[in-house]
């Protein structure tokens, strides 16, 4: 018979099973003589059945064994998660994205848990134009929902990762995923444009077909639809060669802006 059944129990075969950490006694009756047995139950085991962590994280401790030696421990994928022992239990270090099973043997009993390692990062363009459209940001290698915020809503707003420009300027978007806080600087610009939808010139009379843009926006890359009719250099200087019409394209950050040039004889 055990004095405190909340701490431990004993079956008819005399096998004692711990229930929770604490101290109690068991009475054993043999040949009409009663014997007292002191029982100490200590906590041992992983603090969670599974863990979701990020690369670079150290989690401590994940396994605790009060006053009992941990005889062995291992990580099934040490290149993903390393495990090591400290005075208060087992610790892990998340190294790379993936999953690893951690096992520990304590007092003859084997315990295990699973560690899932994530590596969330913000991906998406860092340029937003004042064209009433949104630019989508997302989280790569993340886990679950993401909380988004922005430091100046007078310049841009963000909702579910979609950034919309309000006025020219620079803002910082913050995202929180799986406990990791990430930031991305976003530059908001006025929409670049050509001064005319159609330019005209004569063969032998070069003209400037220059994209108007904010001075701190990257320089465009110019091209023409037909180099037989005209050529254009890196600063938008177009040289007509023969009669015809060409489309001039200026590209900045994957966005293209177009106009036409009519070459007269």
List the helices and strands and how they pair.
Elements: E1 8-10, E2 16-18, E3 22-30, E4 33-41, E5 44-46, E6 50-54, E7 58-65, E8 70-75, E9 81-86, E10 89-94, E11 98-106, E12 109-118, E13 121-123, E14 127-129, E15 134-136, E16 138-140, E17 146-150, E18 156-159, E19 162-165, E20 169-177, E21 180-189, E22 198-202, E23 207-208, E24 221-224, E25 230-232, E26 237-240, E27 244-252, E28 255-264
Parallel strand pairs: 6-12, 14-21, 22-28
Antiparallel strand pairs: 1-2, 3-4, 5-7, 7-10, 8-11, 9-10, 11-12, 13-16, 15-19, 17-20, 18-19, 20-21, 23-26, 24-27, 25-26, 27-28
Could you report the average pLDDT, rounded to the nearest whole number?
91
What structural class results from the helix and strand content?
mainly beta
General form: rod-shaped
Strand order of the largest sheet: 5-7-10-9
- How many helical stretches? 0
End-to-end separation: 113 Å
Features:
0% helix; Immunoglobulin-like; four-stranded mixed sheet; 265 residues; mainly beta
In short:
With 265 residues, the chain is an all-beta fold. The chain has 4 domains: 34 residues, no CATH class; 75 residues, Immunoglobulin-like (Sandwich), CATH 2.60.40; 69 residues, Immunoglobulin-like (Sandwich), CATH 2.60.40.1080; 67 residues, Immunoglobulin-like (Sandwich), CATH 2.60.40.1080.
